[in-house]
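Chapter summary example.
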Amino acid sequence: MNYINIFFLYSFLGHFIETFFYPNGESGILTGWWTPVYGIGTVIILLLYKFIKKYNFNKIVEIILVFLNGAVFLSIIEYIGGILIEKIFNQVFWDYSGFMFNFGKYAALEMAVVWGISSLIVVYVLRKITFKIAEKIPKLLTLILIILFGFDLYYSILLK
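The structure predicted for these 160 residues follows.
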C-alpha cells in the first residue's frame, strides 16, 4: 500500500507544481487534481533506488546511479507519454523542439538533467518523510483514491 500512497502523493504534488509554474496550461490528461506521470516516475525511481541499495556501492557511485537512473528512465517515460498523449488524445502538452539538445519534441538532455536532480531530491531529501506519510494514510482512504482514480481514468479517457 505504501507505494500506491506514494504514487498518489507525488501525482498530487506533480499536479500542484505544474499548476503553480504553468497556471495557464494543462497538467496531464485527467480531470482530477493529479498528474499520474509524477507518481509513476517517483515509484520507479524509489524501486530502482531499492535495487541499487542491495549492492552496497560507495556513496558517490550510488548518487551517480540515482542521478543517471532518474535522467534516463524519467526521460523515457516523458518521451513515451508525449507520444501516447499525441496519438490517443491528439494533444501536445509539451514540446522541447526549441531546446538545444532535444531528442524530438518530447525529450531533451536539459530536461534529463532536471529529472536526474529531481531523483536525487526524492531519494535523499524526501524519501523518508514520504514513506512516513504514506504509512499513516488509512487503507480506506487509499481504496477511495483508487476508486476515484479509476473513475477519472474512465471519464477522462473514454468519455471526454
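To summarize the output: DSSP finds five helices and no strands in the chain.
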